[in-house]
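hey all, quick one before standup. I had two proteins in the batch that finished overnight and I want to keep them in one place so we stop losing track of which output belongs to which input. First protein below, input sequence then structure tokens straight from the run.
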Amino acid sequence: MAYGTYHRRDLYKSCSSDLSTLRGTPYPCSPYDLLSSTSISNLSPYSAKSPDEATVELERFLDPSARIDFTVQEAIDRLQAGLLIHDWKPDLVIKAFCDLDIVFFDGKLRGKTTIHWRRKSWWIHQARSLNGHRRELARTDYLGNGKAAIHLNAWGILLDSPNAKTTMWSVVLHEMVVSSYISVAHTISNYTYIFFSSPTIQHAYEHVMCGNSPPTRYDKSRGWDDGHGLMFRRLIHPVHERALRYLNMPVIHLNYTQDHREEKYEI
């Protein structure tokens, strides 16, 4: 087998290793950052916003003309250096999670969203419990009280995807954006993967800012009640553009190339 195959197996095996700032990928994060990425704090939830309010707030933060403050620039610098690490491990994206939050979500997810790798057995159990046969690249569970947990499919991302590193980053940013009820299929190695969620399982930013809200009437009227509604379609583009600008990394894929940023919720 090619070296790449062995390397991918090593990545998969290491995804369940204990997390430590002293071991694994040498990404500069503090023990507090690591704790914030893997455990829910006792922070009170934000006052729930409407999807439109939450969308406008993040659009302003991501506007290319907006000033990049020192904290965001430092996080960008760390992410840029992290992407250049050759001998990276799956813990990289967990160690970098707080910086992704700072750069793309104005720090709104810290202490309110966790991220974990899940091995094949976890996903098999989930598929059986949902009477499904499709594999999932990721899912985000609502934990209540404005909190969420992102689960990454170690098998699908690290072993089966065309490019494990690129897929890992783009999937994480996708999950961080907004809600997903039943998402678009993505075919890899003759298997069908989906960013899957049930009506009580959504993505991080919308959960944290809006709570566990159902699809809006506007999204239903457009046939967007699969979770990738107008909020997602407006936000994925500025997230994608910032990722390209600072990290040279695409986020947009599949059915989300049409730009909906000028489209507004009908009152």
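OK second protein, same deal, sequence then tokens:
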Amino acid sequence: MVDTRVAPFHAVFCAGYVPSNGGHILHLQLFLQMRIRNPPRPSPDAPIIIYLPHDLSVQGYKQTSHNTLNTLALSAHATVVEIQYRLSAKEPYPRPIHDVLAAYDWIRKHLSSNPHSHKDPPSPLTRKRLGVCGELAGGSLAAMLALTECTPTGITAAALGNPIVDWTSPIQHPISTDSLSSLNQDLKSLHTNSFAKPEHRYDPFASPLLFFRTPALELPPPPSLYGIPSSPPEPTSQTGDEIEDTSQSIPKRRSHRKYPPIGSGLRLPSTQILVGDDFVMKDQVMEFAELLQRSVKLHEEESERKTERVGIVETEGVGLWGEKEVMEVGGWMGERLRG
């Protein structure tokens, strides 16, 4: 039987300074909830998989998180922790980023240390191996966590399903079947309502593709002040690398960025990316996979890569995870986290 625990936790982190006599720190309190699944007879060094769910409610596409956690725990023989991050029109970005990073710190402090180790601080050999997985918005947050926390004692494996890795690009609705129209509309609503300010879309923590290249669209100009219209932007020429103009953003030439930075101590994790042929954002997912592969080759010698570091799996249909896909993801993560 799979051990089930509900683990609410209270996270407090510094939000900034409040101007006052001498100044003091304003603490922002976050009340988050996590659900934890342990496999049957877990070993003391069993790895930990962080699961970040999507929040779509389209009938026929929603895999319940309860089933997902059980399947991941059994197939990976790992402890699975679901972070119930907040994302809505009332709690837009960067709220889910803050939630996930606060929860990750809690997991490292309370769950990832091997209870049989007495070393302080824990070394890579005395910490449990950590992985992360998720799809859609959860895949975006999983990519963010994997790219920014891939230290020797941090994230070493990531599985991403149809991750939304570039919120700056508009969703182009293709001609789709009736079975996909509801899903595309749900994604369109998610894309529209997840950001209160346009500039938040351009943060690489929200759009992880931007760790590897510059945005394809300029940040829209701020609203006019006192009723005076903003100056129109300079006209730009269209090239093959640019995206079609929109009413709010101006195309610009893309250029590569080097990531991770030299001397950062980060090493890109083993990553498996699953994408559906009919997924409306497939192009950005494929570009992300290619740039991730490029970065691995630039930063590491071939002799250092014992296994394929970045795998791409293209599936028929939209490619959202059902029980079969979750089982395959769990098997892959269990193998990588023990490798």
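Flagging for whoever picks this up: The longest strand covers residues 3-18. Helices lie at 65-76, 95-110, 137-148, 178-193, 282-299, 323-338.
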